[in-house]
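Fold this sequence, please.
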Amino acid sequence: MVLQRDDHRGQAVLTFDLESVAYLGGDEGRVALDEVAALPLTRASLVADIASARARFADRAGVLVETVRLRRKAADKLPGTADWLFTDEALQQATAGAVAAHRARRLAGRRVHDATCSIGTELAALAGRAAFVVGSDLDPVRLAMARHNLDTASGGVPLVRADALRPVTRDLVVLLDPARRSGGRRTFDPRAYTPPLDAVLDTYAGRDVVVKCAPGVDFSAVRRLGFAGEIEITSHAGSVREACLWSPGLTSPGVTRRASVLDRDEDLTDADPDDCRVAPAGRWIVDPDGAVVRAGLVRHYATRHGLWQLDPDIAYLSGDRLPDGVRGFEVLEQISYQEKRLRQALAAHDAGALEILVRGVDADPDALRRRLKTRGSTALSVVITRLGSGTASRATAFICRPSR
């Protein structure tokens, strides 16, 4: 039976049960899914498409339509999962394919137990790299979906129903991805995860563990819970995706922070050199990737790429050449930041489409862009930041030409 409930957005959400998972994974369900997949299921056609599916498949229509829609949503996030089964919540929580593959590479050759395996995303990535993989989850529906998905994706992985806080393996690396929503809302307190991070660390004390966390997790809060290993921040497709905790036995000695920029295959740690200088702007301004900033490795990034800081407390960097493949902002003019003066300078540069970046100054880029009302023909960027400290600090604007 499939029940209806209202989620935190006030929308009806389908709840899958074991019977519906068995139907969707069987021959009859696969044929029905192929038929429903031929429907457009767009916003404009959805009501008519659901009516058509209901006329053809009666009470099965709901799970069929929902599965096809979830598969389409998963196409970019999880390539190669065209035949998978999902719940809406499980898909939202699932690790992006590129991020899961990156983690699996770090765990290559090890024996791994994914103790919160859900629908099997991490297991599918691990199956081709780890020496041995086993998965467990407390939710029987997600476990049934994982069994279907992994049979499809990797020839099968041992699965068992178990509570993540009641260990069922020994001498394996334990991978955990606690839920980070409470009452339908995202939580940033690691003790409010499900299971709570403090309970996870206590349960697996003395074992090699990898724990996925929200990208905005408070590093100091994690340290106060007794975690002494590496905190890795990972970005993909231009955005920070997650923080990940690696126990000391799974990282290099002395490494406590890491930034992994998957788009550029770049890896930085706090063991790398960080002796960059602070100096006025050169030809280019660089806004480091969010993973670098979040991991507190801006100086390390600058040192690696021959850049320098504009200010010791601001993440913007500068240099006379751009690192390969990095977007930058070529400085055309530097002015003291006052809105009237900026408007005049932009008019002199024939500014049209305008990108505004702000750090260290109380300014809303969208509201400022509307007020500036640029009408020229040249696409420009404005980098607004605060330079200096105390009474010597000054808000500064750099009018720039973006590299791309």
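Residues 76 and 390 are 47 Å apart (CA to CA). Residues 3-9 have pLDDT under 50 and may be disordered.
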